[in-house]
Amino acid sequence: MRLAWLTFWALVACIAVVAQVDREARRKPHIATLVPSIFTGFASEEKVRRSLLSRASDPARREVAELIRARPIPGEHLILLARLEALAGNTEASLVDIQRAAHRSWRDAPTQLIVLRMALAAGDEPGAARRLAALWAIQADREWLREVTPLVLASPQSAETFAGILAEDPRWERNFRAAAPSMLDPETLGRLAE
To answer: What is the pLDDT of residue 105?
Structure first.
């Protein structure tokens, strides 16, 4: 009985160690390969990224499918799938995956930036303004904001959409108002103040 009890606790300890190594793989990608496949969660994302870098699409596709099956909500996994589709030349499928990712995780700044740039390229000014508002709301990287804010708000239609969103949700307005004078010309600032 005592041996069974010790074996049980040793097994629990091993599982806990493997789970911690899996979590640590997010910060230290090189240890992702140490995690057994049955325990991968965070390590799977790193394995997919490594497969993408080495252009090994078949293992990456299996890993992404498993990630999406295990955790269907995070949009980051769909972005990985979109990258795979783009590498395989499936542009249409890649665009669909990016749109799905943007709807699922508006707090993921890289996803919002990708969709913002797609909206600008497609001439969807209100869509670009909504993505810009999401980036400001999540307090994305200031350099990204400095780069894209003037591009998006140069259009009167985008500025109007953005101002409407700003008026509806004033929680992040103070951050925007403090940073905007260094990013925008006086004419654009005037349009936003109206």
So the answer is: 77
Encode 41-54: b = buried (16+ Cβ within 10 Å), e = exposed. Answer: ebbbbbbbbbbbee
CA 17 to chain centre: 28
Q: Residue 19, Cα to own-chain centre: how many angstroms?
A: 23
72, two tokens: 């269907």
Please report, for residues 51, 68, 116, 117, 194, the alpha-carbon distance to residue 163 in angstroms, rounded to integers and kept in the order given.
Answer: 42, 36, 17, 19, 8
CATH architecture entry for 1-105:
Alpha Horseshoe (1.25)
- The single-letter DSSP state of residue 71 is -
Residue spans per domain, the chain: 1-105, 107-194
136: nearest Cα among 126, 122, 146: 146
* Ramachandran area for residue 55 (φ above 0: left; ψ -120 to 50: alpha; else beta): left
Q: In this predicted model, what pLDDT tens digit does every residue of 146-176 receive, in sequence order?
A: 888 898 988 889 888 988 888 887 777 777 8
